[in-house]
Amino acid sequence: MRISVEFIHKSEAALKKALPGFLFIWLGGCSNAGYYLGALSGHAELLNAQRPLDQVLADPALLAQTRARLKTLQQARGFASRELGLPDNDSYRNYADLGREYAVWNVVATPPFSLKPKQWCFIFVGCISYRGYYQREQAETYADSLRAQGLDVQVAGVRAYSTLGWSDDPLLSTMLYRSEARRVGIIFHELAHQQLFISGDSTFNESFATTVEQEGVRRWFLTRDQTQGGPARYQDYLEELKRDARFRQVLLQTREKLQRLYRQKTDEDTRRKEKTRLFSELKQSFAVLKKSDPAFSAYDHWMAQDLNNAHLALVATYHEYVPAFRQLLKAKQGDLRAFYRAAEDLAQEDQEKRRILLQQWAKKGR
């Protein structure tokens, strides 16, 4: 990739600020210089593509739909800091058109008879269960090398990511998808990561951010009156969440069956055949689900993949502690700032004690 001298001068301060972020997000081992340089180049390209949002909105060539969506996201960005108490910085105040469907592609891998994902360890954030690439071809090449080792592998496109405040993350064209609720939710979710992030505990981080996202979307639509369709669109969002939960439950049921299978002391051939049967059964269960509600066809693309353990390894990561966090927010009478402080207190505990305390909070809501 060629980066202009003009861009280097304009972005030098941003890159210096972002460098620690690149290190902890992407540098999986100090010896992996090629991977690090590729990630640094990919993020630099993203920064090079960004423009001030006001400048983008003033462009007469901008498509009307894109303009409308960006104006809404601009409003949501202000709402996030003003009403949700999320960081008030320069993140999501610029826009970058990436010209592709996803911002990055994450590689997830598991052993053939386990749902425990392979870990990649990064500076500051600790070990996480995926490895990201800005180029799909690079992600696929790395995925092939893992498959050659006999691992189950998934390559998953990601529409947004956070540098956790180390750089000013722009709005991306990849975020302009699906419903208004999903679009504004991405901003709330990613800013929640800037609000609170724990090294090495993805389930805590993602569940916390998902809770903030869902509460943020609820409050966002409360500010929309009938003429703006706020109540109706919020109900549509709740229906989407219900479908997500039902679909996720089908996946979790298969995951539990696979876990029981892998604990059995049977020969590999028997386990392999049963594993194949269980994934086939998952496809059948989805067909029944879709027959009950055609709206589940939204998951057709995901279900059309050649599913394996890696597709189910992280299925609970974004939601496992959400019931606990919701209960904690309720205990704080909906005061988000008090909720953030309580979550920060949990973050000070070791991971096992955190897990126990969150389980206790979840039980209070049952």
Question: How are strands sequenced across the largest beta sheet?
Answer: 1-2-8
Number of separate helices: 14
Secondary structure: helix percent = 55-70%
Q: How far is it from the N-terminal to the C-terminal residue, by CA? A: 54 Å
Say how many strands there are.
Answer: 8
Q: What class do helices, strands and sheet pairing give?
A: mainly alpha
Estimate what percentage of residues fall within beta strands. Answer: 5-15%
Q: How does the major sheet shape up?
A: 3 strands, mixed
Report the uncertain regions. 1-31
Q: Mean pLDDT across all residues, rounded? A: 89
Shape, per Cα inertia axes: globular
* Cα-atom radius of gyration: 21 Å
User: How do the helices and strands follow one another from N- to C-terminus?
Assistant: HHEHHEEEEEHEEHHHHHHHHH
Q: Looking at the chains present, what oligomeric state does this protein adopt?
A: single chain
Explained architecture:
The chain is mainly alpha-helical and 366 residues long. Among the domains are: 5-198, no CATH class; 322-364, no CATH class. It contains 14 helices and 8 strands. The strands form 3 sheets. Strands 1-2-8 form a 3-stranded mixed sheet. A 3-stranded antiparallel sheet has the order 6-3-7. β4 (120-122) and β5 (126-128) form a beta hairpin. α8 packs antiparallel against α9 (268-292). The longest helix is centred in the C-terminal third of the chain and has 34 residues, at 230-263. The chain starts with a helix and ends with a helix. Mean pLDDT is 89; it is low at 1-31.
